């Protein structure tokens, strides 16, 4: 994904060429997938000419339209934010610029990063949803327009579209990366993240954002397998992908076991919904005064949150706190949880974005997640798996994810 920089002049030309190539790909695909809200071609060209030397010099990237880029509108998929110009870059955009990357424009988000979809289509089959809320970012990477795009997650807003579009995704541990410049929905749950075509590229992008995070290649791996069947009807191709991957990890030398009842996922999923509604009602209190401009799903969320009591909210947070203590201890003894990233492939239709139910528990616990692409169902639609790790061991999580990706692709590295 990086653009080599052997000399300043040649690097500038290379960065400019990368931007022009991305603009060409965008023009060729946008009429089909509708991933972009606003393309800043002139701004990207200027940024490419002055891009600093860095690991991502000249890499064009898309920015989910709840994340600020200085001088561009941040409209959050809602008429209530139309024309609001960002005065400064979000922290994440600023970090990527320092690494030499170039923002190409803003990608489609669902309304305020909740459920109401925008116009984006799945690049694999336009009649299917790309997922949400990071729909435009996932589709732009899947279509090959940009090698990198920014997303966010409050429930399953990055993991799910990564799975549906067949790309790699990283959700940072809650609180690990600043959310400055990101229009939030639920402060206890919101986390930024990245989308790339492969886990290898994902690890490079994470390291560019946070140089203290370097991918580790562990010699000994223990994987806990969770099917998610207590929360959703997991479709047979997804279950098959999960179990084949678990067996492949075992054959490569990893130790594996079932997660079982060591994590109260149903209780935590309910607690997530309580926290999200309560905080969203307060984050969007000004917008709630204009219900005619809000979608039905968002109005219902804000109404539920406004009715929730402080006692219910505090009880949900305490449930999360107690469970987090236990799961961090578990992930110190083991390594990762391997699970479906969604119940199945992207559903038919573009009026909804699918369910985030398989991500709610892990987001409430503030854990880092990597979506690993590579599987397909019998109709050729992508199936993603998620690896959930310890927030203090992100490098190890990325290393295990890359090995998992290689196994899925049929290039098994030995473990141990």
In short:
The protein is of the alpha/beta class.
List keywords for this structure.
single chain, 416 residues, alpha/beta, Amidase signature (AS) enzymes, 11-stranded mixed β-sheet, globular
Can you tell me about this structure?
With 416 residues, the chain is an alpha/beta fold. 40% of the residues lie in helices and 14% in strands. The chain is built from 13 helices and eleven strands. It has helices spanning 8-33, 41-49, 91-98, 135-142, 159-165, 199-209, 236-251, 265-283, 285-288, 296-307, 310-333, 357-364, 394-408; strands spanning 36-39, 60-64, 102-107, 148-153, 168-171, 191-196, 222-225, 255-258, 336-340, 369-376, 382-388. The protein has an eleven-stranded mixed β-sheet with strand order 1-3-2-4-6-5-10-11-9-7-8, with helices on both faces. Strand 2, helix 3 and strand 3 (102-107) form a beta-alpha-beta unit. Helix 6 (199-209) packs antiparallel against helix 13. Residues 2-9 have low confidence and may be disordered.
> CATH class of the domain at 8-209, please?
Alpha Beta
Radius of gyration from CA coordinates: 20 Å
**Residue windows where pLDDT falls under 50 for at least 5 positions:** 2-9
Look at the structure and name the CATH superfamily of the domain at 8-209.
Amidase signature (AS) domain
**In order across it, which strands form the biggest sheet?**
1-3-2-4-6-5-10-11-9-7-8
Shape assignment = globular
């Amino acid at each position: 994904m990086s653009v080599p920089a052997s000399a300043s002049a040649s690097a500038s030309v290379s960065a400019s060429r990368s931007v022009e190539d991305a603009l060409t790909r965008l023009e060729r695909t946008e009429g089909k997938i509708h991933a972009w809200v606003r393309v800043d071609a002139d701004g990207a060209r200027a940024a490419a000419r002055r891009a600093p030397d860095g690991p991502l010099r000249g890499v064009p990237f898309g920015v989910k339209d709840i994340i600020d880029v200085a001088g561009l509108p941040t409209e959050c998929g809602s008429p209530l934010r139309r024309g609001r110009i960002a005065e400064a870059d979000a922290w994440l955009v600023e970090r990527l610029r320092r690494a030499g990357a170039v923002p190409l424009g803003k990608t489609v988000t669902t309304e305020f990063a909740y459920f109401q979809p925008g116009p984006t289509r799945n690049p694999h089959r336009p009649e299917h949803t790309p997922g949400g809320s990071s729909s435009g970012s996932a589709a732009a990477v899947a279509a090959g327009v940009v090698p990198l795009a920014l997303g966010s997650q409050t429930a399953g807003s990055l993991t799910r579209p990564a799975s549906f579009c067949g790309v790699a995704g990283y959700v940072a541990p809650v609180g690990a990366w600043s959310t400055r410049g990101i229009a939030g929905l639920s402060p206890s749950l919101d986390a930024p993240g990245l989308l790339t075509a492969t886990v290898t590229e994902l690890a490079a992008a994470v390291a560019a954002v946070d140089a203290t995070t370097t991918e580790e290649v562990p010699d000994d791996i223990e994987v806990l397998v969770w099917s998610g069947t207590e929360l959703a009807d997991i479709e047979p191709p997804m279950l098959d992908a999960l179990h084949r991957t678990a067996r492949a990890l075992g054959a490569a030398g990893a130790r594996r076991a079932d997660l079982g009842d060591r994590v109260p996922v149903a209780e935590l999923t309910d607690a997530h919904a309580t926290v999200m509604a309560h905080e969203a009602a307060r984050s969007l209190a000004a917008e709630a005064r204009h219900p005619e401009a809000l979608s039905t799903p968002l109005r219902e969320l804000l109404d539920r949150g406004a009715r929730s009591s402080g006692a219910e909210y505090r009880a949900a947070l305490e449930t999360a706190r107690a469970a987090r203590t236990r799961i961090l201890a578990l992930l110190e003894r083991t390594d990762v949880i391997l699970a479906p990233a969604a119940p199945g492939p992207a559903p038919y239709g573009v009026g909804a974005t699918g369910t985030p139910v398989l991500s709610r528990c892990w987001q409430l616990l503030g854990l880092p997640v990597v979506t690993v692409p590579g599987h397909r169902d019998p109709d050729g639609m992508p199936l993603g798996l998620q690896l959930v790790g310890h927030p203090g061991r992100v490098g190890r999580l990325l290393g295990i994810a890359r090995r998992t990706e290689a196994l899925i692709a049929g290039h098994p590295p030995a473990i141990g």
